[in-house]
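Bug #77: duplicate submission created two jobs. Keeping one. Sequence:
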Amino acid sequence: MDDLKGKVVLITGASSGIGAAAALAFGRRGSRVAVHYNRHEQAAHDIVARIATAGGEAKAFHADALDTRGLDALAQAVHGHFGRIDVLVNNAGDMVQRVPLAEADDELIDRVFHLNARSMVALTRSVVPMMRGAGGGAIINVTSQAARSGGTPGAGLYAASKAYAATYTRGLARELVRHGIRVNGIAPGVIDTPIHGTHTSDERMEKLKKTIPIRRLGHADECAGTILYLASAELSSYVIGQIIEVNGGTAMP
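Kept job's structure:
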């Protein structure tokens, strides 16, 4: 992945979980990493420090994913600091809370879709002109296995928002390929990240683990490797509009 060296990579939700693992992985390969965070400022700065220790370059940037104007300001700030954006990883998202679909009120629906879908669209809208001006780039959207399965009990809204993300990824790929911008996504399965620590009980996690053919939870680093692959034109130049499953064998085509 020598072509990632020197590339500017903006990763949303990069203070923990898959986003943090991806930030560290890019940093170790010589990329210049914009570490986005919202609430966890110290964690974001810790990721920046770890990248610097590994010999990479990084800077933390704050933005609320629910604020579309703030996301545009994020793109402008990253571009202003680094001079370009070569790779965008739309990773920020959350389940918010577990609620049966028939009981979801408008406020929760708006929050879940704004956080997981609209924020991705808004930030991408700001970054695409920058990539066009630079002659190309790569966009990787983090969706979920739930987009195919409908999600575990109470996670239907999250699953639907991630299905939106998957469909958006394919449509965007068709539109941008002629501009030299490759768009793909990853669909993580049950990954040991803070989202499950907040919204999934230990008992449910044990039950989920038993349904995974590899018989264990996934690790954030295992998702980061797939993100690196999709960002590298050296390795994935002919991969366009794909959603790569990273799920331990739980869902197979």
